[in-house]
Here is the input.
Amino acid sequence: MKTYKLLNVFTLVFLILISCEEEDEATAEITAVKSIEETTLENNEKSSRTISYTYNDSGYITKDDGYFPETYKYDSTGSILIEYDDSFFYNRKYTYNSKGQLESFYYKIIGFTYTYTYKYSSDGLLSEYDKDGKVYIITYKEGVVIYTYEEGNYKEVITLEYDILNKNYYSLLFPEAYLNIDSEMKYLINTKTTVKTPNYGVLNKQEKYTYTLNNQGYPTEIKIEYTETDTENVVTIDKTVTKKISYQ
Here is the structure.
């Protein structure tokens, strides 16, 4: 079975070979993501877009046609993504260590540049994440990854909660090296960010993920609900993004 790969930093997703007969759908070989239809509802305003993907003969993504078409470049082996850009707004470059783990991520957008670096523990888990000068220390619990950044009276804690499901769509979308950040095949189901500052109190952000799976265990729809509240528990952001995924 071929594995098809796509990379984007944090962005996302999916799979199923379309068939006219139900029995074929259950056993059809998974090949690639065909398109993602994304709908956003925010402040009672609705917007939508559809992203389609183009692959080369080796099964690697070479282009997507989102708001601005993005092209993907690989290393000399043709299998590890090292750069992609839309030739208009941004450019992203990736480097990897000798173990194939993502080592650095360079991001340029409209004249601004950002650099992210990654460090790993002896057992291969991500232990430190430097986000353009903000160093997050990473700890693990059962099904949970916690990023913590502190400086003076400022503290930021990001909690990522996962659930182990039958299939992981990231195996189709991302190179193996990038997956090494979280080597277990897990789905993100919830994120919580708490920011404490001396001047602005506490800010809480949450993202809740709900998946609809096909009979092969891959998602055909992902619903992401975003909320943000301030110290007075006033909702400042209320947004829902729905991604519908089709496969080929």
Notes: Residues 1-25 have pLDDT under 50 and may be disordered. The domain at 22-247 is CATH 2.40.160.190 (Porin). The chain has one domain: 22-247.
